[in-house]
């Protein structure tokens, strides 16, 4: 893992991510349009907006699942063009979905090393996987047995293990798509607090996160900045301390009403 860390860490004097005039169309319908923003090292950004605003499409572009039709993406100071999620992961971008985070029938240690299994000769080195997974989870404050099946974990534990897996392989950018949508209030709070601790304390500003959420109040508990999307565009980009969650919510309701009145 140390080789991976050396490969991915770069000069943090500039932004971690810079997106310039990004567009994505499905037929004649723009899903993402004129999107430009920067993300600094150590930032946690809440990406919010109504259904169909373009949030998930944007993070899927950043994660290599979709190619933009126009625009540029710069990551760690260099221009990147991803043809697959694998290419994005190789550069240090990881996406975590609520429903697809872990394979329930696999032990935790196998989930963590999925597609990155260490080998001893021609065989998978299960002993190393178990030992390293146990040590890393403990360092992240996750007290679970790595031999346990992922399906035996609570929703919050599953999310934290999935996020830890991304960080174990030195992700610089975490993309979390609705990470709290199926969690209880307590589990949602614990998961987001875990993200905050990981970014600010464990990784000391070497990683950042974009959290897609419908629940503005959830994301506000950890976000340093808020991006609001509407009809594929970023219509608001502010430090979270400058507007309350209720004010952001009212802003989204206002632009939704304005659209409805124009139909």
Automatic annotation (TrEMBL):
Entries under InterPro entries matching the protein: AAA+_ATPase, ABC_carbohydrate_import_ATPase, ABC_transporter-like_ATP-bd, ABC_transporter-like_CS, P-loop_NTPase
Protein name: ABC-type sugar transport system, ATPase component
Keyword ATP-binding: yes
One MF term in the entry's GO annotations: ATP binding
Nucleotide-binding found in the keyword field: yes
SMART domains associated with the record: AAA
Alphabetized UniProt keyword annotations: ATP-binding, Nucleotide-binding, Sugar transport, Transport
Gene source species: Metallosphaera yellowstonensis MK1
Source taxon at top rank: Archaea
Domain ABC transporter: 17-256
């Amino acid at each position: 893992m140390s080789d991976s860390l050396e490969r991915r860490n770069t000069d943090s004097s500039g932004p971690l991510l810079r997106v310039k005039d990004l567009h994505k169309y499905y037929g004649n319908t723009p899903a993402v349009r004129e999107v430009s923003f920067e993300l600094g090292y150590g930032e946690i950004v809440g990406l919010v907006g109504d259904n169909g605003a373009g949030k998930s499409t944007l993070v899927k572009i950043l994660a290599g699942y979709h190619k933009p039709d126009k625009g540029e993406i710069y990551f760690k100071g260099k221009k990147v063009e991803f043809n697959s999620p694998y290419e994005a992961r190789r550069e240090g971008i990881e996406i975590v979905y609520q429903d697809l985070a872990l394979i329930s029938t696999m032990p935790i240690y196998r989930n963590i090393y999925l597609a990155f299994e260490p080998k001893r000769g021609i065989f998978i080195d299960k002993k190393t996987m178990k030992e390293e997974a146990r040590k890393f989870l403990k360092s992240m404050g996750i007290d679970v047995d790595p031999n346990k099946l992922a399906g035996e974990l609570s929703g919050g534990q599953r999310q934290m293990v999935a996020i830890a897996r991304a960080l174990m392989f030195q992700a610089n950018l975490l993309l979390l798509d609705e990470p709290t949508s199926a969690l209880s209030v307590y589990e949602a709070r614990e998961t987001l607090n875990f993200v905050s601790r990981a970014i600010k304390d464990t990784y000391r500003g070497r990683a950042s996160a974009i959290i897609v959420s419908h629940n503005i109040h959830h994301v506000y508990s950890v976000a340093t900045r808020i991006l609001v999307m509407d009809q594929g565009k970023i219509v608001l980009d502010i430090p979270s301390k400058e507007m309350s969650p209720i004010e952001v919510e009212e802003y989204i309701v206002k632009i939704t009403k304005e659209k409805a009145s124009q139909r």
